[in-house]
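Course assignment 3, question 2. Fill in each field.
Student: A.L.
Task: Predict the tertiary structure for the chain below.
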Amino acid sequence: MDIIEFLKAVLFGIVEGVTEWLPISSTGHMIILDELIKLDVPAEFLSMFLVVIQLGAILAVVLLYWERLFPFSLKEKPFVKIDIFQMWLKIVVSCLPAAVVGILFEEQLDAWFYNYQTVAVMLILFGVAFLWIENRNGGKPAGVNSVGEITWQTAFWIGMFQLIAAVFPGTSRSGATILGGIMLGLSRTVAAEYTFFLAVPVMFGASLLKIVKFGFAFSVPELMILLVGMTVAFVTSLVVIRFLMGYIRRHDFKVFGWYRIVLGIVVLAFFILFS
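Answer field:
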């Protein structure tokens, strides 16, 4: 791997680590970045890389929230933490809609919607939605102020919001589930935390499917590009997750709504003018 491809992998890792957790669409940014800075790799590897790089980001969640994610106690009784175990069952419920649709229609959905037009439109639509929901809620107190208070029904509907992101790139998985959570009565902090936890099985599952489909016949340069991207995404995610949780305790999501709208307009203008 030459220095140019190494630097490209670093840049992809930074973009993944930043955009995976902010509600601004990591897939949308990765598509845009790929249009601007092409990795010198086969198309099949690139398709796998853009998904599996997320493993680096998700490992940051596992590290930061290990005590709240691991449902077993190795030092004291009870050995099973019932509240965490129940949370994981609710996460399974939230995962089902996107998992079923993804398994059945992944290739068709990629062919139909994996393009700059869809990314731009969804960036703008969900940007407007963030502004609307924040203006609607104003200073109203949230009805759900801890992850443990999320009901089975709420978990399912959050999963339906995640399905929108699974179908339409540019939506943002975190953006869709955070927005959906707030609409369903979750506080911003709880909506963000549940989104982080929900990402663990979603990203592991998506990455596993992509790796199995691609196979394990990596060339040395390909393996290095993947490892560099994942490592940088991991380190960047540690910083971004801490930043986001601190930010939303004091601010709303309007700035991300405006960012999405502006970026969507820029994307449309760029590709219309230069494609």
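Instructor remarks: The chain has one domain: 3-274. The chain has twelve helices and no strands.
Grade: pending
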